[in-house]
Amino acid sequence: MNIQEELTCPLCLDLLTEPLSLDCGHSFCQACITANNKEPMFALGGEHQCPVCQSRYQPYNLRPNWKLANILKKLSEVNANSHQWQGGNVCEHRGENRLIFCKEDGKAICKLCVLSLEHQGHQTFPIEEVVKECQEKLQEALKKLTDEEQEAEKLEANISEERATWKHRMHTERQKILKGFDEMRGALDREERKELQKLEEDEVNVLDNLAAAKDQVAQQRQYMSELISDLQHQIRESTLDTLQDVINVIRRSESWTWKKPKIVSTKLKSAFQAPDLSRILQEFKELTEVQSYWVDFMLNPVNALSGVVVSEDHRQVTAGNSFMFRNVYPCNFSAFDVLGCQNFSSGKYYWEVDVSRKTAWILGVYSDLNRSDLNRKRSSGFVFNPHVNYQTVYSRFRPDNGYWVVGLQNVSEYNAFEDSSTSDPKVLTLSMAVPPCRVGVFLDYEAGTVSFFNVTNHRSLIYKFSKCRFSQAAYPYFNPWNCPTPMTLCQPNS
Fold it and tell me: Per the domain annotation, does 223 fall within a domain?
């Protein structure tokens, strides 16, 4: 659309007068669109339609277009000057119409003035050509300024948007900083409560022991006081008639043995030492960094004979009722195996698992070291390597078999499973200051490491497998064991 079309009212086909614009971008004379709005619009529920594009609008949507009004004002001034130039102004010297323009003098003259000595040798042009050229230049200048004005308007809008985006980003970063320091303060608060609880337990134990010792001493003192009193009485007042009483008192004194109570040491088991802030901050920073690699995937039972139930959203797994107390050969609970539907052959990946209220579970990473094993698992429901003697339920959970896992057994026994020289893995007991309700797993494929974090206990490191050999793709591994409580794959950044 050219400038002439933009400045023309679609209704009266004349230059716009007091232009009003709609949200659709079309503009009309105020009188034209007002008259158009007076037509009945019962079918539209009081709404009106744009005469050009038929989009609906309410009368209050009309707004003055000051930009077009300013352009029209400038154009009217240009036209007025043009009419003035072409209005046949009479030469004040010779009475002829001034139809010629003298370039040197920059003014309109008549044809007789051209022949005068005053304008001899000057460049002259027909006034119509000069007016036309001026109008074209004015139009060019107007278009240039209009385009620049529009560009400036867009730039202003972009700057406002960038400013709003920047403010939102700063707000988000500010919240992250506040949250991070709150979590670090929370970690220190938990350390403080733990130390105070240990001190309180020591205090109660020692005070109870001392109180019991005091009672024991007091009882023995009372008995000794009574015995001393009897001995003194017999020394002062004994006679032949009371000889038997004397003998009894002597026997009592000879059989008496002073028993000193056993008093526990009042020395502190360990003097308080301020927590290692660098360690806590390093652990906090490490988990914060690994959480940036949080990957979203779904759970997938490995075989058709699976003993687990996976939820409809494929994020929660529960041991099936039919397998809950069943003796599954070869006693390795492989019927409970669940893998992530996504496998990894490079890069870094992190995920979290909710294990709250579970009394048993195993999770970590499984790498398909032998393709035939996985095929047997899919067909039979078990992973069984004939070269490995599965003697216990833990036998297969070792890195040599492609498992880098940690687990919970018997409510409170946390273990990691490493390789050993025997067919059974080396079961390492893990100490947990706070039982984890949520466990984070971080896989660094290139570095060959699998790390486990106690998200519940201010992101402390549970265990880390190093020098892992992933000869094939690695899968997230889940095993709810025979505990009926579900384990849940957490949403990223939840």
Answer: yes
